[in-house]
TrEMBL record:
Similarity-based family: Belongs to the short-chain dehydrogenases/reductases (SDR) family. FabI subfamily.
One annotated GO biological process: fatty acid biosynthetic process
PANTHER family attached to this UniProt entry: ENOYL-[ACYL-CARRIER-PROTEIN] REDUCTASE, ENOYL-[ACYL-CARRIER-PROTEIN] REDUCTASE [NADH], CHLOROPLASTIC
Superkingdom per UniProt: Bacteria
Name the record gives this protein: Enoyl-[acyl-carrier-protein] reductase [NADH]
Pathway: Lipid metabolism; fatty acid biosynthesis
Binding site for NAD(+): 21, 27-28, 71-72, 99, 170
Catalytic reaction(s) noted: a 2,3-saturated acyl-[ACP] + NAD(+) = a (2E)-enoyl-[ACP] + NADH + H(+)
Record: active site: 153, 163
Organism in which the protein naturally occurs: Hyphococcus flavus
Enzyme Commission code: 1.3.1.9
Cross-referenced SUPFAM superfamilies: NAD(P)-binding Rossmann-fold domains
GO MF assignments: enoyl-[acyl-carrier-protein] reductase (NADH) activity
Keywords of this entry: Fatty acid biosynthesis, Fatty acid metabolism, Lipid biosynthesis, Lipid metabolism, NAD, Oxidoreductase
Length: 271
């Protein structure tokens, strides 16, 4: 097993949960998974066939050997995946949802011109409804309460060049998260989202101008820093552990303070 580069402890000791959305070693979901394991959590990873070998190879490095195949656009796949989790564990304590997808051609230029009806539907299905569906299924395995998080981005609140339909999907995801939080809150299930700043992920690589987005995020941020996976994983640990006991329906920005800036100092200093 490789050395996990995250603080170790027992905040998640005795807790089990599902992590959805690991694509490679740069995935936000992978950073969160490492932090959870470092704090004693027991994990299951979902995967799609195209990612199976990659996900399993990574998981082995942190001692995880429980995997479920789950295409979030297939009810049959989701039925089978959650049945397998129930059969093995009976109950779970948390869900990490970090899944989004759209046609690469939609992530450039004009939102109006490059958004097709079918891609709009598919983007909403994978990037927003998948959380609602996974939350409903996970809640059935949380009779004693639990916690869920999903990953979003500032493009849900403000226009971002080339983010286009994905920004609309993230806005839908955030609204869905609040309604899920309302419905599941009385059952003792806390539901929140993390709005992470630009990072070197597979998703960011698919956006035209993604590298420039990262540079701007650093230069305009209050901390003058890139968003770090350690920061995002730490926020996830807070929301999923008992430390976040009274937090629900929240979109927690982890972007070095970029979201708080209306006009950067560099603009004012050009006078």
């Amino acid at each position: 097993m490789s050395e996990i580069p995250f603080p170790k402890g027992e905040l998640m000791k005795g807790k089990r949960g599902l992590v959805m959305g690991v694509a490679n070693k740069n995935s936000i979901a992978w950073g969160i998974a490492q932090q959870l394991v470092a704090q004693g959590a027991e994990l299951a990873f979902s995967y799609i066939p195209a990612m199976e070998s990659r996900v399993k190879s990574l998981a082995e490095t942190i001692g995880v050997d429980f995997f479920v195949e789950a295409d979030v656009m297939s009810d049959d796949d989701m039925d089978a995946a959650f049945a397998e989790i129930k059969n093995k564990w009976g109950t779970i304590d948390f869900l990490v949802h970090s899944i989004a997808f759209t046609d690469k051609d939609a992530l450039k230029g004009s939102f109006v011109e490059n958004t097709t009806r079918q891609n709009f539907k598919d983007t909403m299905d994978v990037s927003a409804f998948s959380f609602v569906d996974a939350a409903r299924r996970s809640a059935e395995l949380m009779p004693n309460g639990g916690a869920m998080i999903t990953l979003t981005y500032l493009g849900s609140e403000r226009t971002v060049p080339n983010y286009n339909v994905m920004g609309v999907a993230k806005a839908t995801l955030e609204a869905s998260m609040r309604y899920v939080a309302r419905d599941l809150g009385p059952k003792g299930i806390r539901v929140n989202a993390i709005s992470a700043g630009p990072m070197k992920t597979l998703a960011m690589a698919g956006i035209t101008g993604g590298r420039q987005l990262m540079s701007t995020g650093r230069d305009w941020s209050l901390l003058k820093q890139d968003t770090s996976i350690e920061g995002v994983a730490g926020a996830a640990l807070y929301l999923l552990s008992d430390l976040g006991f009274s937090c629900a329906g929240e979109v927690l920005h982890v972007d070095a303070g970029f979201h708080a800036v209306a006009v950067p100092d560099s603009v004012a200093h050009k006078e």
